[in-house]
Amino acid sequence: MQSQALIRTENLTKVYRIGSIAFPALDHVNLEIDAGEFLSIVGPSGSGKSTLLNLLGALDRPTSGRVFVEGSNLFRRNENQLAEFRNKKLGFIFQAHNLLMRTSVLANVALPGVIAGESRAKRTKRARELLEKVGLGDKVRRKPTELSGGEQQRVAVARALMNEPLIVLGDEPTGNLDSKTGAEIVALLKSINEERGTVFILVTHNPEVANETQRVIHLRDGRISHMERIPG
Amino acid sequence: MKATDLIGYSFSAMRERKLRAILTIAMVVIGAGLMTALNGMTTGMYQYIGGQFGTLGANVVMVLPGMESTMRINEQTASVIRRINGVKIAVPYVQQTATAQSAGATATVLVTGSDQRYLNDIFPTLKVEEGTLVAPHDSIGIVLGHSVAYPPDKPTPFARVGGVVVISFTTVKENQQVTVKRSFIVRGILAEMGTSGMFLPIDRMAFMSLPAATAFFGTAGDYSGVNVIATGSEKAEQVASEIRRIYGRSFEVYTSKTLIQLIENILGAFSVFLGSVASVSLIVASVGIFAGLYTSVMERTREIGLLKAIGFKKRGILAVFLGEATLIGLIGGLLGDAVGAGLGYGMAVIAGQVRSQVTSEMTAGGPSIGYTPPVYTLENFLFILAFSVAVSMLAGAYPAWRASRLDPVVALRKE
Q1: Is the dihedral of CA B348, B354, B356, B358 positive or negative?
Q2: Alpha-carbon gap, residue A15 to A48, rounded angstroms
Q3: How does DSSP assign chain A, residue by residue?
Q4: Closest CA to A15 of A28, A26, A3, A2
Q5: Does residue B113 surpass a pLDDT of 60?
Q6: B264 Cβ contact partners less than 8 Å away, ≥ 6 residues apart
Q7: What is residue A74's predicted lDDT score, i.e. its pLDDT?
Q8: Which of A200, A212, B275, B355 suits B101 as a labelling partner, its CA being 20 to 30 A distant?
Q9: What pLDDT, in 10s, does the model give residues A53-108?
Q10: Using CA atoms, how far apart are residues A192 and A199, in angstroms rounded to an integer?
Q11: CB-CB: which of A102, A107, A112 is closest to B310?
Q12: B374-414 residue pLDDT tens
């Protein structure tokens, strides 16, 4: 064990190839994230934000470099183990189209529990509690199509928390919302972070969102250009 | 992930694209239904034929004139056959279609003249209901089959024991059509055999003594055939092959077993043809399933990306889409079984009408095979269900595999 960090990246590099031309999307990124952190990743389009998030989310494999989570090398695992890691340790909130429109809000939130093989009673109970927590306790039987954009993101937040993850990854989680609703979502995430110690890593374009986090990582051309701590 | 959750998930996905699911299932229903109906019809036909020949003793060997031979069967043939090892007795007979008249009513009957002491050896289940059989040299006695005496479509009996029936037939003599007529006294009436069809229609036959038939029909010592009774059913094949050895292709030689086989072979070829038509329709359905699921995978790329992000493994995605294909096959197969069972009855009625017309032309208004009800077996239903599921899963395999292989990063980028 070299460090106590929850997540540590070591020369994390991702190169995309189009024909014979190589595009380094991520270039030797070294980053440590501690337990309980609430941080954001910002940078212009093409700076490597999403690539970094995909690698931290175990959705993609790096060209070179390593990611350690709780001290263990993430990409040593095979695909099934990575899927299990995503299910048990991670939560995802995307910008939009997060939910299955055909099933109820409750079923959407409970889905990670279904994958984990939890009993119906147990996962329904937990999904209800989480929906209560995000302020949608009265809308569990609704379809996502009947909810506003802000409410849909709240459902996505509840689903991300379903299996009590270590880390929740947000890819522009407020990108499709007006600033007031966006601020409410960020406040919700912040309260969960404070209450449970869940790590939040939010990729955003929005300086208002970044300013709400404890630490902002600035990416440029696939490298960390600088980091700033926001005084809380 | 639990199996029940998987089924629930697949089902909800199908409900989201209701019309497509219904159309795909309908294709399976048509295929499976056709298979069920045609299978039921042929099974019904098999059972009918099996039942018809069930009246024929297992130790009986039938010797008939050869189709490509002019060699006749006569008393000399009978005596050669009688000397074959394993032959208990050889019963020659004269048989011809004729018209029977009684009390103003007429009926078409198949008249058989033979020594009736051996009738029960040939038809073990045959029973006399009223009166007696005809004695070997009775020249005016006749025994009527059950539906000749009691026509099923008429309220009054055609004839009674002790009554007179006039038998007539038309023949050509010196380029002139002449009708030969003669009165016979009804000695007995047979109990119902339930075989009024084309093969061995005992209920629609009339029996007289061999000398009476020979004289009446003027057959001059030629027989229509010889029924050979072997000493045991295990000897029947041996006797049959010995007769074939002696006469070559001059005569047709059948045991009840080979007769059933022969007809089943003809029917079998026909049912293979029908069966392949039905299975082609299921294969067409599989193309529909393939297209439907493949489109679905394309449309649901984003969903697949999400599922992978929240922890679905490759085989989980595979199971979701294969699950849909399986559900389509299962629902389609079950409905197909049910719809096909009904369809089979309808088709059997139509087939019966066509067949009775054709066969009654063949026998000049005589006995014919009409409606035979379809027969369904549990194995058949299960086989068709399994086949539907297998075809659906096979069709769903590639789309499901494609879905499972989608890169989550690429899939999530799709809006």
Answers
A1: negative
A2: 11
A3: -----SEEEEEEEEEEEETTEEEEEEEEEEEEE-TT-EEEEE-STTSSHHHHHHHHTTSS--SEEEEEETTEEGGGS-HHHHHHHHHHHEEEE-SS--S-TTS-HHHHHHHHHHHHT--HHHHHHHHHHHHHHTT-TT-TTS-GGGS-HHHHHHHHHHHHTTT--SEEEEESTTTTS-HHHHHHHHHHHHHHHHHH--EEEEE-S-HHHHHTSSEEEEEETTEEEEEEEPP-
A4: A26
A5: yes
A6: B46, B49
A7: 93
A8: B355
A9: 999 999 999 999 999 999 999 999 999 999 999 999 999 999 988 899 999 999 99
A10: 9
A11: A112
A12: 999 999 999 999 999 999 999 999 999 999 999 999 898 87
Q: State the average pLDDT over residues B134-140.
A: 92
Residues in CB range of B191: below 8 A, 6 or more apart: B126, B127, B128, B129, B146
Q: What is the pLDDT of residues B206-237, one digit of tens each?
A: 999 999 999 999 888 899 999 999 998 888 88
Nearest to A60 among B1, B306, B409 (CB): B409
Spell out which residues of chain B touch residue A59, defining contact as CB-CB under 8 Å.
308-309, 408-409, 412
Does residue B379 belong to the interface with chain A, where contact is any CB pair within 8 Å? no
Q: What is the residue whose two structure tokens read 């899927």?
A: A83
Predicted pLDDT at A231: 81
Taking the Cβ of residue B312 and every Cβ of chain A, the question of whether any pair is shorter than 8 Å is answered with: yes
> CB of B311 within 8 Å of any CB in chain A?
yes
* SS3 category, B122: helix
Report angle CA A144, A147, A153 to the nearest 5 degrees: 75
**Contact criterion met (CB < 8 Å) for B309 and A92:** yes
Which residue is listed with tokens 């009223």?
A: B130
Nearest Cα residue to B27 out of B305, B252, B273, B336? B336
Contact B314 A112 (CB under 8 A): no
pLDDT of residue A1: 45
Domains assigned to chain A: 36-61+79-229 (3.40.50.300)
**CB distance B373 to B348 below 8 Å:** yes
List, as one string, the DSSP characters of A148-213: -HHHHHHHHHHHHTTT--SEEEEESTTTTS-HHHHHHHHHHHHHHHHHH--EEEEE-S-HHHHHTS
Residues of A in contact with B308 (CB under 8 A): 59, 83, 86
Distance from CA of A225 to the nearest CA of B (A): 25
**What is the mean pLDDT of the segment spanning B7-32?**
90
Which residue reads 């007539």 in tokens? B168
Q: Is B99 helix (H, G, I), strand (E, B) or coil?
A: strand
- A→B interface, C-beta within 8 Å: 54, 57, 59-60, 79-80, 83-84, 86-88, 92, 94, 96-98, 100-103, 107, 111-112, 114-117, 120, 159, 163
DSSP one-letter code for B118: G
Question: Given a cut of 70, is residue B165 above it in pLDDT?
Answer: yes
